[in-house]
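Q: Here's a chain of 158 amino acids. Please give me its 3D structure as tokens.
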Amino acid sequence: MRIVAAAAGLVGALALTACSSGGGSDSDSSATPSGTSSAAATATAGSEDSTASSDALQGSWITTSGGKIVALVVTGQEAGLFETGGSVCSGTAGEEAGMRMIHLTCTNGSKDRGTGMVDSVSKSGMKVTWSGKSGEETYTKAEGGKLPSGLPTASLGQ
């Protein structure tokens, strides 16, 4: 139960971290890799369909992998990921060439979740295929800072 409470706290911390802008101005394009800036601008300034599609990624998403909780937080075009006892990653999320993509850099150098393509997203779930060894993962949306029901917790941290 302690790990579940800790993970819930970390999701909240990631959400707050992902919300900070780092003090940059709106005209600062250095926060977005050059390969994604035009796609991100298209998603923001483009049709309602592309904006709605990008907005679908927003929020806190949780899954388990190898007995660990993985929290993925998307706010605007920023993304953050935390794996209990493992990686802490940050990067970008949004539309590129008509696909929803997530690009992360992890503080421990892990490439397990470096680039992810969002295969599907709904109000309650999101399926991401990562280019690293994590492969395909299915996330459940965490609402109101609470962990979603149905997550296995008995084996976490053991």
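Q: Can you summarize the key feature?
A: Residues 2-19 form the longest helix (18 residues).
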